[in-house]
Amino acid sequence: MNATVRVINTDRKTVGYVIGGSFVTTEEARANSAVIENLSLDDSGQIQTTDPFLPELTLHQVYRHIYEKFAEKYNLNREIQDQFEAWKKYKSDYVLYLSGARQTGKTTEIKKFIYKNYENILYIDLSIDKLRISLEQCMQDTRHTAFAFANFCVQNRMTEFTDSVDTVIVLDEIQESIAVYNLIRQMKTDLKCHVIVTGSYLGKTVNSQYFKPAGDVWNLEMLPLSFTEFCDAFGCKELLLTVDLSGKSSEETYRKLYKLYQIYIQIGGYPAVVNEYKKSNSIPNCLEVLEKLIQTFTDESASYFSDDKCRIIFENVYKAAFHMMAYEKKGTSAKDIQKVADFVKNSTKENVSRNEVNRAVAWLKYSKIISGCDLYNQGRISELLSERRFYFMDCGIASCISRMTPVDNETVRGILTENFAYTELYRLYQSDRVKGDKPCCSVYNEYELDFMIVDKDDKKYGIEIKSTDADKPVSLMVYLDQHIIEEGYLAGKTRGGIRKDIYSIPIYTVGCRFPYR
After folding, report:
1. How far apart are CA 97 and CA 83, in angstroms?
2. Percentage of residues in the chain with pLDDT exceeding 90?
3. I want to staple 466 with a disulfide (CB 3.0 to 4.6 A). Which of 201, 413, 492, 516 is the partner?
4. Angle, nearest 10°, between helix axes 129-140 and 145-155?
5. Residue 121 backbone phi and psi in degrees, to 5
6. What is the helix (H) or strand (E) element at residue 14, kind and residue range?
7. Where are the beta strands (DSSP E) in 106-238?
8. What's the rounded Cα separation, in Å, for the pair 120 and 97?
9. What is the SS3 assignment for 391?
10. CA–CA dist 152, 135 (Å, integer)
11. Contact of 466 with 416, CB cutoff 8 Å
12. Nearest Cα to 60, choosing from 113, 19, 11, 115?
């Protein structure tokens, strides 16, 4: 085994070597010098090379090479990279707080970003016991977080810690450590370097032992691939963003985009699933990956609870949410969470309490597996009723769950179509383009409207989702006649157009092309 490159920093200090194609810190090389043929220790214990012609690279060049290899291996283009860049440029005095469900690509995209943009990188996975315990001990031993990270790097043979704007600290799975989580605010105060924290099962942080760092963090949420990102993976992003919404593009364009949409609502946007489809072109293979993902969510979620019943409760909550979507009308009588609790209690032989079900539902919401939909009562935005509908945060998960429930195929198609619209519209709220924090439905007398959106200028839009051509937009017409909304849109299997003041748009444009005209 030989070192092939000496790695230096901007001060020309040796910080490591490339050995076997991987970057190894000086400390790690020193500890293993006995098995590295062209490295040795001098009398003072310092490492030196026996090869006078060993080439040099800067640490930034090494990281850039790592980025290029990483980007080649994980080659899905994610729009969140633009948000990372904006944070670094304008908001890096805040700690970047990245949340999102497991397996959405948080770690992958963060690594792409840091290896591309920083010279000094300290990445710590807090789900690894040894690293978490070491960091907690270092933080306990000193009041200043810079000293804590410096000592941590020494203890774990990492590159020497430098507290500067060219340095980034990434604390992955932040929910695993109460002690580290509670120092987020102090990190913002103490450190010059940039700090990123990520978490998957953030329901754990609802515990009163976790101090909320409100005002000190810049929140971003990582979601599965949007339909725009999905189209990009198959070379059709430009088609989606330019297709004419009134039917004037070519028939081939509408056909190609609708075919991709039909695939997407079955397999969703989890990166592992999308990559499986790119590799095998097989929806059944993708569903196998989704089943394993759901099992992972269930196993990992249940591990945070002491009660053995939690696994059964989680499995039934998935089914209950889908059942509610299929058979319960949007309304003002009760929160869907109460209906889910009743469903789970009736579906399991275990003695399950309503409180246990509520905890499981809340956990899945914090974990970004499901999400709630609020309701504008009687079309009035001043009468907002919470949690009147559930949706899955990924169409593939919804599609997979549908196979576990006795719901007919036509109803399933309608649910998946509406779930697609929810997840696509949800992204509008994350980008701060409309008022509120998530999509809302509405009820006016007996007329249900799938979604009602209020933009920054208080303009109200009504959107009705239809999975077949035969359905008429009755609710939209009533909402327009009563002047509850100013524009009405029917999203479905259509090329687009206008009829009696109601616009129709292709279902796959419902989120990415808002406000449509």
Report:
1. 12
2. 67
3. 492
4. 140
5. -125, 130
6. strand 14-19
7. 120-125, 167-172, 194-199, 217-222
8. 20
9. strand
10. 6
11. no
12. 115
Residue 278 has pLDDT above 70, yes or no: yes
7: which strand partners?
16, 57
Q: What is the amino acid identity at position 437?
A: D
How far, CA to CA in Å, does 46 sit from each of 29, 161, 191, 419?
10, 19, 30, 61
Is pLDDT at 243 greater than 90 in this prediction? yes
pLDDT of residue 58: 93
Tokens of 463: 């959107």
Whether residue 33 contacts residue 41, with contact meaning beta carbons closer than 8 Å, is answered with yes
Q: Is domain 74-222 given the CATH code 2.70.50.60 in the classification?
A: no
Residue 267 contacts residue 274 (beta carbons within 8 Å): yes
Instruction: Note whether 492 and 413 are within 8 A (CB).
Output: no
Residue 207 has pLDDT above 80, yes or no: no
* DSSP at 160: P
Query: What's the residue count for the chain?
Result: 517
- Spatial separation of the C-alpha atoms in residues 5 and 269, rounded to whole Å: 40
How high is the pLDDT of residue 131? 96
pLDDT tens digit string along 320-348? 888 888 877 666 555 666 777 777 777 77
Supply 331's token pair. Answer: 């309304």
**Among 300, 456, 271, 441, residue whose Cα is nearest residue 371:** 441
**pTM, entire model:** 0.92
Taking alpha carbons only, the member of 431, 419, 362 closest to residue 393 is 419
Neighbours of 225 (CB within 10 A): 25
Map out the domains of the chain as residue ranges.
3-58, 74-222, 285-509
